[in-house]
Design goal:
mainly beta
Length: 129
């Protein structure tokens, strides 16, 4: 059983910054990617960013490229999402998740929620205009 505990989030004005954290504990697979997804009211869940176990490979949704940065600390088993230049359209409930890294997996694999097997509780990010 893997537990993911999220922190961070809140209310910020457009153009501001926030940092989300997600700490994993319990029985994790030896190597796992960590990702962030978000879901706005009335919309489907969408991929935001992912970082592979090595920490050197990352993937981003086009909508957040250049503004969001994902990073991880494998000693603390924590993943971070630094969000800069926030826009009102970034308002959503943000979820972190873990995904085992199957051999030969590519970026597209990590951009779908079905590739993830453990999810955090969600944290609200609200950006006011």
């Amino acid at each position: 059983q893997v537990q993911l505990v999220q922190s961070g989030g809140g209310l910020v004005q457009a153009g501001g910054s926030l940092r989300l954290s997600c700490a994993a504990s319990g029985r994790t697979s030896s190597r796992y990617a960590m990702g962030w997804f978000r879901q706005a009211p009335g919309k489907e869940r969408e991929f935001v960013a992912c970082i592979r176990w090595s920490g050197s490979i990352t993937y981003y949704a086009d909508s957040v490229k250049g503004r969001f940065t994902i990073s991880r600390d494998n000693v603390k088993t924590t993943v971070y999402l630094q969000m800069n230049s926030l826009k009102p359209e970034d308002t959503a409930l943000y979820y972190c998740a873990t995904s085992p890294e199957p051999p030969y997996s590519s970026g597209s694999y990590y951009q779908t929620g079905q590739s993830y097997d453990n999810w955090g509780q969600g944290t609200q990010v609200t950006v006011s205009s």
